[in-house]
Amino acid sequence: MVNRKELDPSKSPEDAYGHRLRRLREGRGWSQDELAERMGYSSQHISAVETTRKPPTPRFSRKADVVFGTAETADSFERESQRIKHGVLLEGFPEYVAFEGRAVELRLFEVGIVPGLLQTPDYARVLANSAVTRGSITADQADERVSFLAQRQGALVRPSPPMLFVIMDESCIRRPVGGHKVMDAQLVRLLEFAKMSNTILQVAPFAIGERRTFNRPVNLLTMPDRSVIGYAESQTQGHLDRNSTSVLPMLTAYHQLQGEALSQAASMTMIEEVRKGTP
Description:
51% of the residues lie in helices and 12% in strands. It has helices at 13-27, 32-39, 43-50, 58-68, 77-85, 93-100, 121-134, 139-155, 171-174, 179-194, 244-260, 264-277, and strands at 105-110, 163-169, 199-204, 218-222, 228-233, 238-241.
């Protein structure tokens, strides 16, 4: 075949997607024209996706899944396209976000940094740029990360917004991020958040010691049918849990932590004190 571009699936997720699409197509003896007819696209579009000149969209991927019989499987093209789109996010997190946008109640606990849904754009940008400096993501991926966070925050601004319960370890407000100006604006944002009618914000002080019930960030979502979904992260992976036998104990632990944390009024006082003491 003339001018055939050879693909290295280990080079990038896009190359892996294109290589797999071509392999499955040729395995069935189809030309690009024949696959295009089956999927409802032009042969030029098929060629562009196979050679990474066009990114695979969710719609394109769903069509490919139907044609190749991979829909609803662990290695579906749709899942692969989501991994490409959200490549800078932990595995499992994009799936969690889909539920987050429909939840009627959110319960969050965070350690070390302000929870993403409460971050100002400047605070989020500093964290993303720090990851670029460390070499863990590219500048483009940093832009994607910040943009994705803005989309998450926007999804919660709706006619009937969810109730948000947020508990932050004291380290979240005392760890300086981005210098005085960025940190001061972030603390002001927390104070404004606490004044909203659908929010409760509490700080879990260092003084509670071993009575802090979680040692890592935890998210609990109550869905419209009152089912509860849990989400927790390790350093490299996020885990979505819809099993009530394991999620309900997490909900109990969250309620116990609410009892140990400062009241919202006392939490606001602490945040104001930190603001005044920021160098």
